[in-house]
Amino acid sequence: MENNLTYETAYAVLQQIATEIENESVSVDVLAEKVKRASELITFCQTKLRSTEQEVNNIIKQMETKNIPNS
Amino acid sequence: MVKVSVEFYSSFGFQLILKDIDQSFTLGNLEKQRRLTLERLVNENPAFVQRVGDEFHTKNKSILFSKVIQTIAIIGSPNSDGYVDFTHTINSSQYNYKFAIDIYQSSVQGAEAEKELINKLVAIHQSGRKYDCVVIIRGGGARADFVVFDSYNLVRAVAKFPIPIITGIGHHKDVSIVDLLVKASTKTPTKAAEFILAHNRSFEESVIQTQKFIVIRAQQLLGNVQQKLNSTNVSVMNQSSVFLNLLKDKLLNYNQSIVNQSKTILYKRQTNLVSLLNQLLSKPQIVTANKKNNLQNITNNLNSFTAKFLANQKGYLSHFESLIKMMSPQNILKKGFAIVSNKQKILKNANSIEVGNELTITMETFHIQTKVLSKTPNDGK
C-alpha cells in the first residue's frame, strides 16, 4: 500500500470510483480493476480509522488517569 | 540742770555725785538747731532734697543699691570698736560672703570731724573705685559729740552723694540729720554690717528662690511633657491597635475573598476543562464513527453499484442474445421460411434466377434440389 496516501485522498478516490460505477461510466474491461482498487482503499481507510480510534482512546485513558484524578 | 547727790566719806570728805542731767535743757537747743539746719537744707537745695510729710527725699536715697554689695568704702576710725565690730560681723557671717573694704580714716567727733568727713566723701567720689556703698561708722559716744552729723555742710554733701550711704553711728535714742538723709541708717556698726549681709542674703535668697522656681517649673514642665507623652503614647498605642485591627479585618476579608474567588475561578476552570475534556473524549469517537459510517456507506454503495452495474450489463447481453436468437436462420426456418441458394450461394432476390436453373432449397429439416419451371413477378398480392 502507498505510504503517502492520506485518508482524505483515499476517501475521495473511493467516492469517485463509487460515482463512476453508479453512473456506469466505467468500462467493463476496467471494472474489476476499479473494484479491486476500491477494496484496497476501503481496507486502507478502515485500518487508518481503527488505528486512529485506538490511539485516541489510549490518549483519553491517559488523560483520565493523569490529569483529573478527582473527576 | 542736773540732779546730784551729796555724800560724805570720812576719808575723802564730801563728794558730789552727778545722778542725772535734765536733757530738755540742752536738747532743746540742739533740736532747734536741727530744725533750722533741715529747713535751710530743703530750702537751698531743692534739686536733691525734698520734704514729703515727715520724710525727706534725697538724691542719695534715690540711688539703688547694687544687687550685691561687695566693694565697700568705710569712713571712720580703724582703731575704734565700731570698725572692729563692723569688720568682724561682716567677715564672720555664716554665709561666708567676701568683701573688698577700703577704710577712709576720719575723725567722727571733734572740731575737725565735719571737714574731714566731707574730705573723705570727696576722696571716695574721686577714687575711681566703683563702690557699692559707703558706710559711715562710729563707735559710740556722748550725745553732744554727735552734733557733727547734724552740721549743714556734711548733711548737704551726704544728701547729694552719688553712692548709697549706710550709717551706723552708734546711738540709740535719737537720729542725726545724716541718718534722715542717707540711703540706709542703722543704729550701730554691727547693725550696718548685718544690713549689708541681709541685703546680699536677700539677693542670694532670690537667686536660690529663682533656682528653686526654675527647678520646680522645669519639673512641672517635664511632668506635663511626660504626661502628654504618656497620653500620646497611650493614644498612639490605642490608635495603632485599632488601626491594626482594622487592617487585620481587612486582610482577613481580602484573604477570605481571595480564597473564595480563587475557588470559584478554579471551579469554573475545572468545569470548563471537564466539559472540554468530555468534548475531547466524545468528539474523536463521533468523528471516527462518522467516518466509519461514511466508509461503510461508500462500501455498501460500491457493492450495490457494482452489482447493479453487472446486472445491467447482463441484462443488455441477454437482450442481445434473445434478439440474436430470434434473428437466427434456424429460428426463421422453423417459422416456415426457406433459404434459396444457387451453387452454394444464398440468393437474396430472384433477379439472377432463370428458368431452368437448378436451385437448392434449404428447409428446417431437409435440403431440396429443384429446377425452375417459371418466373413471375411478385406484386405483393
Give the helices and strands, then pairings:
The complex is a heterodimer of chains A (71) and B (381).
Chain A: H1 7-23, H2 28-66
Helix pairs in contact in A: 1-2
Chain B: E1 2-9, E2 13-21, H1 23-44, E3 49-52, E4 55-58, H2 59-62, E5 71-76, H3 81-91, E6 100-105, H4 113-126, E7 133-137, H5 152-159, E8 165-168, H6 177-181, E9 184-186, H7 189-327, H8 329-334, E10 339-342, E11 345-346, E12 358-362, E13 367-371
Parallel strand pairs in B: 5-6, 5-7, 7-8, 8-9
Antiparallel strand pairs in B: 1-2, 3-4, 10-11, 10-12, 12-13
In terms of quaternary structure, what is this?
heterodimer
Give the distance, in angstroms, between the N- and C-terminal Cα atoms of chain A. 43 Å
Helical proportion of chain A, percent range: over 70%
Strand portion of chain A, in percent?
under 5%
- Rounded to the nearest angstrom, the radius of gyration of chain A is 18 Å
The structural class of chain A is mainly alpha
Overall radius of gyration of chain B? 86 Å
Could you give the order of the helices and strands of chain B?
EEHEEHEHEHEHEHEHHEEEE
Low-confidence parts of chain B lasting 5 or more residues at pLDDT below 50?
Answer: none
What overall geometry of chain A do the principal axes of the alpha carbons give?
A: rod-shaped
- Distance from first to last alpha carbon of chain B: 241 Å
Query: What would you call the shape of chain B?
Result: rod-shaped
Strand order of the largest sheet of chain B: 6-5-7-8-9
Largest sheet of chain B: 5 strands, parallel
Helix content of chain B: 40-55%
Number of helices of chain A: 2
Sketch the topology of chain A as an H/E string, one letter per element: HH
Provide a count of the helices of chain B: 8
Walk me through the structure.
The complex is a heterodimer of chains A (71) and B (381). With 71 residues, chain A is mainly alpha-helical. In chain A, 79% of the residues lie in helices and 0% in strands. Chain A has helices spanning 7-23, 28-66. The model of chain A has no long low-confidence stretch (mean pLDDT 81). In chain B, the strands form 4 sheets. Chain B has a 5-stranded parallel sheet with strand order 6-5-7-8-9, sandwiched between helices. In chain B, strands 11-10-12-13 form a 4-stranded antiparallel sheet, with no helix packed on it. Helix content of chain B is 55%, strand content 17%. Chain B has helices at residues 23-44, 59-62, 81-91, 113-126, 152-159, 177-181, 189-327, 329-334, and strands at residues 2-9, 13-21, 49-52, 55-58, 71-76, 100-105, 133-137, 165-168, 184-186, 339-342, 345-346, 358-362, 367-371. Chain B is α/β, with parallel strands linked by helices and 381 residues long. Chain B has a domain at 330-371. At the A-B interface, α1 and α2 of A face α7 of B.
